[in-house]
Write the structure tokens for this entry.
Amino acid sequence: MGEEKNTDDVSKIIAAINPDKYYDYDVKSRLDEFKKLLKEDFWQAADKAKVKCPEEHMLVYDSSSETLEPVYFWILDKMNEFFKNKVEKLVDNFSSSAGSGHFAEMGARATKMQEEAMKIMQTAGILVKSLVNIVYDLKEFELRLSQYGAANDKDKNKAEAGLLALKQIWMDNVDIKRGRGSINMLAQDLQFVTIRDAFMIAKSVRDVKDLDLNDRVKRILEPRIHEFFQWKELSEKELKKRYEIEKSYLKSQVNSLKMYTRWVRPYLKAAAQLEMKDMKNPALVTAFNTMILQLSILGTNEIDVNQEIVDKTMPQSFRNKKMKRKYYSCVLVDVYFRGIPQRAGQNYVFGGRAEAKFRAFALNDEEIKMLHQKLAESDMNEALKLAEGMTSESLEQLKDDLEYFLKKPEERKKEEDEKKSEDVNPFAALFGFGNKKEEKKEEKKIEKIKPDDFVEKTVREIAQKKANKNCYDVFDIYKKAHDMASHPSPFD
């Protein structure tokens, strides 16, 4: 919808979600043309949408001496009464003229939040790098320990394979430091052709004496075999100790990172909220001391079909009908405020012109969900999504490794046993009696909304009538409460 987002966008998104009911067209061909554009580019279509609302009221309150807060909070409190506290804020934008004191004040606050956030994020970045290195080291330790475990296994073949692997490691990392006196160099340069194979075959010092080798080779080989088995015993203990130390260190680093991300989130969120929107509004003159506020709130009430049947607003034949979707009577209030910021102590108060637009809609749960999805797609929440990505998703790539290394051995063993038991019992898996935990299903994105059937059309009509009445009542009660001219309600 372009770079600028204003409160009018919410009603336009609703018109784009349900064009048959809320798009204002004069001939059918215009509606077909609009639907075609919707398929090509939703936001371009929504930007061009003309909103048709069954019930719409406008309230203008112009007073340079009175502030916006009483107007907004009175409407919010009354909405909470009508909609049983099911009122949510969809849009909260503001912008000040560059020459105003309010602009400088808010800019300084945003900069302070950004600086604090960046300090914490730098530390968090160092911790993430540290975690990557620790996980890599732990994988190396685990691989090496698995070879020690294989060498000590009761299975003869596994034990032999594990011992051969350890001998190779010993030759490549320990014995190689002898230079020309190492087993590899003796076999290569000094023509001790049999010494390498003899070392790999021998399983103890006694085995060396029984091998068919000359005494010269045996005298070199015996101390090497003795040294290898000493190294094997000591290195295994040392490696296990280092492995546990690294795991403890990993846990402390993960906890530190969680703490830093918890600290940084409020700063990032505050910095995003303090960012002024780029509004091309003619009221924002650079040299003037002015500001623009845009707020949108949505109240929703679910339609209780059974209660409507009792109230005789719906026929008895609908009692046994199964509703696939829930329907809501909704009132959208857009508040546009143009004011002059005036310092009062540590904060500012705003006197000026407030415009409140009240609109009534009837939406089902899929349409409300799609509305939230589209608002999240727009650049209204882009900064907040970036903040969330910088914090909550920091460990996403390392999640499996961290969970694996931070679990206790007995927990790991229990999980492995559960997996084995599930594999062993095919009937349990076949009929769904296994102990497998249900995986969380990702919330599907709504791309298309099916049209209402006959029952749903009736429920939507009732929801629209209720929304129309609530919309008028909030508007009318505000006027009467503030001694403004009013007229008899058309809903009485």
